[in-house]
């Protein structure tokens, strides 16, 4: 009996020791991990392409991810096949110059990711279908850049560590914050007082989390560029047009969001390898803003084939946003054009600009699909 108790005690102590080792390795995984061996993906990557990684939320996760976006009405609904997210546009228009990694199924559930990380293997969660260097996940807050379960920045850096030379002169784009600051209740408080306690706490926390991610990337890859993208205003989304219809309310929201952008500008000013790119000014330059009374007064974007794109929500490409509230194919294509020009200006890259003709050619299938559907709907059905 005594011997049995000793055996059970030894087993119990062994379990505790093993759990302690796993916990310790999880806690210190981001800075203490030795670079893992490069993971072969079966694809030879040309050395003259610039690597681009993405950290963010649904504004950057690819729309044609069949694993996490299975809803039939998501990201373009009936026109999903020709509704592209901006990274997908880049892949098709400038894939010969920009390397986003191989398209495929990447990641696991969070528990498997914890296990892989604990034992020094590359990890990412959740599972999704996307470009290999795109770690953006729908619904992500800024605290998921470094925190569990996503740990986007930490896990991207671990992947970059396997091929450090390849990331010299590469770019990490960070576009996140709309889920921290764009919710109705936050904007509502901001509309009354942009310096109120809740908006201030959210803004400061978001900037702090992005700052940690930037510091981690700079520590491991000092010759990699970082592009910080400013936050959009959900007051410009058609689902909120009935809210905040006063000049004061909109001005306050703009002031609050500007505080966030100013925090990113400060991070960018600290290092020549970091740049800031505002998003609201770009949007306003195309679709405009609300009027002096805070009422919707948006412009129509007109492209040369006679296409008119309004700041409305719907899956047809004539809408700026999809019916589920994300950027539509025209928005994403024009933003990809803007991004290439901005990367060249910020970091002295020599990417071939995306021309207006490129934009039109790329969008033709989307509008043809829309016109074909409209024609089918308008064709009368005759009885036999």
UniProtKB/TrEMBL annotation:
Q: Where is the SGNH hydrolase-type esterase domain?
A: 95-262
Q: Name one GO molecular function term.
A: hydrolase activity, acting on ester bonds
The cross-references to Gene3D superfamilies, in alphabetical order and at most eight, read: SGNH hydrolase (3.40.50.1110)
Identify the domain of life.
Bacteria
Name of the protein this chain belongs to: SGNH hydrolase-type esterase domain-containing protein
What species was this sequence derived from?
Paraburkholderia largidicola
């Amino acid at each position: 009996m005594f011997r049995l108790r000793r055996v059970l005690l030894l087993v119990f102590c062994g379990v505790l020791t093993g759990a302690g080792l796993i916990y310790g390795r999880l806690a210190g995984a981001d800075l203490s991990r030795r670079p893992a061996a490069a993971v072969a993906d079966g694809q030879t990557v040309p050395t003259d392409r610039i690597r681009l990684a993405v950290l963010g939320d649904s504004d950057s996760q690819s729309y044609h991810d069949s694993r996490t976006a299975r809803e039939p009405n998501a990201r373009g609904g009936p026109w999903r096949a020709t509704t592209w997210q901006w990274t997908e546009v880049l892949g098709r228009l400038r894939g010969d110059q920009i390397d986003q990694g191989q398209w495929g199924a990447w990641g696991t559930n969070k528990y498997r990711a914890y296990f892989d990380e604990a034992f020094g293997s590359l990890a990412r969660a959740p599972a999704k279908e996307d470009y290999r260097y795109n770690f953006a996940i729908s619904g992500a807050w800024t605290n998921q850049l470094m925190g569990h379960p996503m740990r986007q920045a930490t896990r991207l850096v671990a992947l970059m560590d396997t091929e450090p030379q390849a990331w010299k002169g590469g770019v990490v784009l960070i576009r996140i914050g709309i889920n921290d600051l764009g919710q109705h209740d936050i904007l509502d408080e901001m509309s009354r007082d942009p310096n109120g306690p809740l908006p201030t706490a959210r803004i400061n926390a978001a900037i702090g989390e992005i700052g940690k991610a930037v510091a981690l990337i700079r520590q491991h890859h000092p010759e990699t560029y970082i592009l910080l993208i400013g936050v959009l205003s959900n007051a410009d989304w058609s689902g909120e047009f009935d809210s905040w219809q006063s000049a004061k309310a909109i001005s306050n929201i703009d002031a609050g969001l500007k505080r966030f952008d100013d925090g990113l500008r400060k991070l960018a000013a600290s290092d020549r390898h970091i740049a800031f790119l505002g998003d609201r000014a770009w949007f306003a330059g195309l679709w405009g803003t609300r009027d002096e009374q805070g009422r919707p007064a948006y412009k129509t974007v007109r492209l040369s084939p006679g296409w008119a794109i309004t700041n409305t929500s719907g899956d047809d490409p004539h809408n700026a946003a999809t019916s589920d509230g994300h950027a539509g194919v025209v928005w994403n294509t024009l933003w990809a054009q803007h991004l290439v020009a901005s990367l060249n200006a910020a970091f002295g890259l020599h990417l071939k600009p995306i021309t207006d003709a490129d934009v039109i050619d790329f969008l033709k299938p989307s509008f043809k699909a829309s016109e074909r559907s409209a024609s089918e709907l308008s064709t009368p059905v005759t009885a036999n």
